[in-house]
Amino acid sequence: MNRKTFLSRTALLAAGLAGLRGKAQATHNPNSLSGHPAVIATWDNRGATEAAIQRMLKGGNALDAVEAGARVPEADPEDQSVGYGGRPDRDGKVTLDACIMDAKGRAGAVTFLQHIMHPVSVARKVMEETPHVTLSGAGALRFALEQGFEKTELLTGKSRGQWEEWLKKGVYNPAINHRQHDTIGILALDAQGHIAGACTTSGLSYKMHGRVGDSPVIGAGMYVDNEVGGACATGIGELVLKTLGSFLIVELMRNGSTPQEACEEAVRRIVKKYDTRGGQVGYLALNKNGEHGAFSIRKTFPYALYQAKENRLLKAGHL
Ligand code: ASP
User: Fold this and answer.
1) Which class is 30-310 in CATH?
2) Residue ranges of the domains in the chain?
3) What string of DSSP letters covers 109-159?
4) Which tens digits make up the pLDDT trace of 211-248?
């Protein structure tokens, strides 16, 4: 789905919200698969899902898989909402947020990290090498360098040019990224049936310097619990943070909801309480049986799902 098609669906927003305010609609997902290994990622991140599944087919576990997957858009300069090539904040600085969580319930995150191409791998190091969950800003950078990560210029000519154009408008209006490639939230279920998740982003374009979104916050941008399954988010981080959507989805699944029902309820919580006009939040969920769900405010939400058993890569535009 290209940007034009995606944005043209905004007309569906009003109808979608009306539906959400009323009775919950059970949405049948014709593409639903079950079993493992399985990987699901926000947006059309096929390269990431493929990298993740390949990692598992070569013996990696779910944690290795989500890291491998998240690293794909992080290194892609054409993906302007993650890692290298990400759009900067309003001061022209590329600042990155990421988190990772494994089947043992361990978690790591970095926020407001500059100059490092793979924040998801730094987040994994925070999880594995420190007693902490989150490192931020200069401290996160220092830790990354100590761990052997290299300092890189993340602002590409393309992103710099767009930022300079934006500056000319002289209006502070941080923009959500609506493109096909966007913040990646990724969940994987490995051959042993263990689940892990990761989320990585450069955040809202032209945000205030220092702004941190939902993506690195455990329970907001991503959450997994190996007893139940996992969930991840993309969209306006402030809305996800205020409702702790990924944690909510996992808890709803624990209490019997399907992944689809849980994603719908998490979106409903947002639209009930907040003005979401023009905004987008999309959730993905994967349970321990490999069943998935996806739902967003705009009703249409591309994502990539790869299920190895049937050797199928699916991209569902909407459910
Ligand atoms: N959730 C991200 C943030 O608020 C942005 C996005 O998904 O586009 O930083």
Assistant:
1) alpha beta
2) 30-310
3) EEEEE-S-S-HHHHHHHHHHHSS-SEEEHHHHHHHHHHTTPPP-----HHH
4) 999 999 999 999 999 999 999 999 999 999 999 999 99
